[in-house]
Specification:
It contains three helices and four strands. By secondary structure, the protein is an alpha+beta fold.
Length: 70
């Protein structure tokens, strides 16, 4: 196997733009599906609570822990 065949697509490490994300989401037949985020290939999932613009990028945030602070 050559090093080129192991090379990951740019979006794997760089991420996607808002436009790319919207285009991909529009391919889903059921537009009422919940959108969740995962950092472990789907083993655990969290709902997206808030979208925010910070430091020149769009952040998908989960705010569940914010209400649990004593």
């Amino acid at each position: 196997m050559t090093s080129d065949s192991k090379k990951q697509p740019e979006w794997v490490t760089k991420g996607k733009t808002i436009r790319q994300l919207i285009e991909e989401l529009q391919t889903f037949e059921n537009q009422e599906l919940e959108v969740k985020m995962s950092f472990d290939e789907g083993k655990t999932r969290k709902p997206i609570s808030i979208l925010a613009k910070r430091d020149g990028c769009c952040l998908l945030l989960n705010s569940e822990a914010l209400g649990n602070e004593a």
